[in-house]
Amino acid sequence: MRVVVDLSRCEGYAQCAFLAPDAFRLHGEEALMYDPEPDDAVRDRVLRAAAACPVQAILVDLLQSRRVPVEAARS
User: Fold this and answer.
1) Distance in angstroms (rounded) separating the CA atoms of residues 20 and 47
2) What is the rounded distance in angstroms from the CA atom of residue 38 to the CA atom of residue 30?
3) Confidence band (pLDDT; 50, 70, 90) for 61?
4) What pLDDT band is residue 68 in, cutting at 50, 70 and 90?
5) Considering Cα of 30, then 36, then 40, then 43, what sign does the dihedral take?
6) Do 39 and 51 form a contact (C-beta atoms < 8 A)?
7) What pTM was estimated for this model as a whole?
8) Kindly report the CA angle at 41 between 6 and 21, in degrees rounded to 5?
9) 46 near 54, Cβ under 8 Å?
10) pLDDT number for residue 62
11) In the prediction, which pLDDT does 1 show?
């Protein structure tokens, strides 16, 4: 999974840091720090955090849907 936060859109409500502290955290009062490739173990929490963002600043890309098996790629 890949996570991108539009930091120009983020207003620091910190719902993401509350719901998925392993992937999102506030540095100081306003600066959001985040893991762009969080572990799959926190996947559900990251998805909930993205859905809870009041300004919809979090984009989550579930990479496995694009993976092509090696055998299929060779033919």
Assistant:
1) 9
2) 21
3) very high
4) low
5) positive
6) no
7) 0.79
8) 50
9) no
10) 84
11) 92
H or E element in which residue 50 lies: helix 43-52
Distance (Å, whole) CA 23 – CA 67: 23
Element (H, E) at 26: strand 24-27
Contact 49, 23 (CB under 8 A): yes
Cα(10)–Cα(31) distance, rounded to whole angstroms? 9
Q: What is the pLDDT of residue 52?
A: 97
Contact 9, 64 (CB under 8 A): no
From residue 6, give the alpha-carbon distance in Å to each of 10, 14, 53, 66.
Answer: 6, 14, 11, 23
Structure tokens at 64: 């496995």
Would you tell me how many other CB atoms lie within 10 Å of the CB of residue 61? 11
Retrieve residue 63's tokens: 């990479």
Residue 29 pLDDT grade (very low, low, confident, very high; cuts 50, 70, 90): confident
